[in-house]
Amino acid sequence: MNLLQDTLAAICPVDADLLARAQAKLDNKTKPLGSLGRLEEFARRFAAISGTLAPDTSRKVIYTFAGDHGIVEEGVSAFPKEVTPQMVFNFLAGGAGVNVLARHSGVEVRVVDMGVDHDFGEVPGLLSRKVAWGTRNFAKGPAMTREEATAALEAGIGLAIDARREGIAMLGTGEMGIGNTTPSSAIIAAFSGKTVQEVTHRGTGINDAALANKVRVIEQGLALNRPDPGDPLDVLAKVGGLEIAGIAGLVLGAAANRIPVVVDGFISTAGALIAYELQPLVKEYLFAAHNSVEIGHAFMLERIGLEPILDLQLRLGEGTGAALAMGLIEAGVKVLTEMASFAEAGVAEQNM
Question: Which domains, from first to last, does the chain contain?
Answer without folding.
Answer: 3-54+336-345 (1.10.1610.10), 60-328 (3.40.50.10210)
